[in-house]
Amino acid sequence: MLRSMYSGISGMKNFQTKLDVIGNNIANVNTFGFKKGRVTFKDMVSQTISGASAGDGARGGVNPKQVGLGSQLSAIDTIDTQGSLQTTGRVLDVGIQGDGYLAVDDGNGGIKYTRAGNLYFDNDGYLVTASGEYVLGLEQTNTNNGIGHPVYDDTNTNIVGMLRPIQIANIEAVSNLSIEENGRINYTYNGTNISGDNIAIARFANNGGLEKVGDNFYIATAASGIPAYGYPTTGGAGKLVSGTLEMSNVDLSEEFTEMIVAQRGFQANTRIITTSDEILQELVNLKR
């Protein structure tokens, strides 16, 4: 069989994957905190018909003769550029202006991360996400006391803080609630102004290495690196902007353009298969 036919098949598979990623981007154009994906390709191994040779004085060198055998996926990247902040006027809507992520308890002893800042208080006064996960605050301490997630230093041996769910007791009696840029929650209770917990923020060496697990959440991987926890406005993690939500960073005009390119690329590869099939048909007909 012709090599071009199998090259066309590989191209069709890759462009189908590209269309799948584009479709997911467009579907999440209005998803808070969503980061778009991008597909890149690379060529497969090439078959060497003849190798290169150097010149010998009497004649010049000869370049190698190779035939490529198609393409394959190189990477499906997560593009973690900043999305625009949409003003909502709601105090518990917090947009992150910077590279950080909110840390939440996954309910199984682990931590998930999100850029979607539409937060709520439940009936027990805990700060939670839209799907009910506890939003974690950072408490500076050097002991592992109570329920929470310990935060270690750079050597990963000494505990320097604890991540705990944020709770405001008697939330029904609280007024004048506000959230500062550094994540500090302020409110008034029984006529007294109280400065509460700080919302924790996590920063990674490689945001693109985070793994999407659905519901606007990510988990850390070996590629993302160990998260560094801190308060917003510290360590370059960004600041919280209360009353706003970060929109998706999907650009529809760009996605539609990429969709057209992927569609034409898919069509071109089907044409390669059709042409190869016609050539094979001609070869079969030689016997007649």
Automatic annotation (TrEMBL):
The keyword 4Fe-4S does not apply. InterPro entries: Flag_bb_rod_N (IPR001444), Flagellar_basal_body_rod_CS (IPR019776), Flagellar_FlgE/F/G (IPR020013), Flg_bb/hook_C_dom (IPR010930), FlgE/F/G-like (IPR037925), LlgE_F_G-like_D1 (IPR053967). This is Flagellar hook protein FlgE. Residues 96-186 form the Flagellar hook protein FlgE/F/G-like D1 domain. It holds the Pfam family LlgE_F_G_D1. Residues 242-286 form the Flagellar basal-body/hook protein C-terminal domain. The gene is flgG. It is found in: Bacterial flagellum basal body. It comes from the Bacteria. A flexible structure which links the flagellar filament to the drive apparatus in the basal body. Residues 5-35 form the Flagellar basal body rod protein N-terminal domain. Keywords: Bacterial flagellum, Cell projection, Cilium, Flagellum. Belongs to the flagella basal body rod proteins family. The keyword DNA-binding does not apply.
